[in-house]
Amino acid sequence: MDKSKEYILFSERTQRLSERRQTTSQTYLTVNTAISGVLAFLAKDAGFRGWGLVLVSLPLFLVGVLVCLIWHKIITQFKQVIGWHYEQLRDMEQVLPDGCKMYSNEWERFFKLRQGKERFGFSRLEAWLPRLFLGLYVIYGVSLIIATALGWL
Description:
mainly alpha
């Protein structure tokens, strides 16, 4: 196969992987938003109080935590696979004649490690979303148990 055609096919495949990662994050964000909405409904409008509220909320907390852990793992795996694809594209650019070396230039400008730190990356920012939801589940769950134990609910 011609090197330039291989480069184009690989570039398109990398783009599809990036789109899949984005769709995956949107799906998990939707699931977490739905779980949060159900928890809010249970706490405010469903009439549950005290330990009853804790008992009906507990399965949702557990599902939410599990969803966040899976989501984080998937984002991490996508980051590794997509990173490898971009590395291959940069390598291909070195042997293509008369290319603009778009991926290599982008890497140098935005992504290359500087002083041991990543400079930019959507995957890194995306990885904070499941952590944020996980933290919210833990804070809400612990607060609910404490408030119930102290008789505030």
